[in-house]
Structure prediction request, 385 residues.
Amino acid sequence: MKSISNLRDYVVSMLSNMIRINSENPPGREDEIASYVAERLAELGLKAWIDRFQGRANALGSIKIGDGKKIMLISHLDTVPAGEKELWRIPPFSGIVKDGRVYGRGAADAKGCIASMLGCLKSLADEGWPINGEIIFAAVADEESENRGVRRLIAQGVKADYAVVGEPTNLNVCIAHRGSIFLRASFIGKAAHSSKPEKGVNAVYAASEYALRIEKLSKRFKIKHKLLGKPSLAVTIFRGGVKDNVIPDRCELIINRRTLPNEDLETIVNRLRDLAEKVSEKRRIKAAVKIDRYLPASETDRNEEIVKAGLRAVSKVLGKRARPRGFQALCDMTFLVHKANIPCIILGPGRLEEAHVIDEWVGIDQLVNGSRIYHELIMDLIGSR
Prediction:
């Protein structure tokens, strides 16, 4: 593998340059960074192209040598918005290198993963591509919103024997992640003048009671996953009222339920509907609970070759025994597992705690080790030496 100093310079340069390209989502502005990544892939000798669709863009590349198996490296180009830029001590799109870290929006989630993957590919290119098989690289759009990038990729029929999903796992091999259900609870009462509240039915009171019941329910989970712990439940948005002198006749809640592998969607939703029905009967108000969006949890069997190769690679590079972990957030793995039937692991530099925050950063040592781990994993699975 290329020298550590050269690798360090390369991955830091790649990440700093990508951070300087604003790819906030919303609105979803991946075209410029997709072009940048595709150019880098072509420089390394991969067949590279940009897939533009619905105003979005995926950057894709592949190299095939021999008839061995296919492994896909996949991460995402978009980031969450930087928010109020004056709150950042270091400008969010500067890509500044300081104290062994690279700072900026997307440093941890997930441009750092792309930089490490590019570093791995650069090392393999420098070695003359000592592989027997195919490497597919995908930097996709819209992971932070509707996952349109990976959906597009799967709709085009992508196939692979293994996949590594780049997300900030602190270089742990994660084989399971939680799913997510977004539900909309609506309460419809009766409007009245605020001087005569008894003439109306206050939808905010009913919705508030429902929210507090959800809070109690969120503390009573008994089920637990070995790697992911317990599920979670929270009210995340509360909307009600139209004017300060009108009893509100409508109130709406958005609820987020994070799920574990093998949990039943119908059972979860029925429990929340039962709670709403109890409130509606008590307060003589109409209530409805509907699913806005659902992405299931997924898990890869720890006996899959991709899992074992990932653990071996991490153990070798970091010099300590690696164990399978769980990833608490949702990611594109759910589509690769449930729609494309590809065994996956989630693995990348950076910590989830540093994602989506002010002054986001990733450690340079983690970027370098990420490249080395990806390299070892690929050589383990499809290396020709």
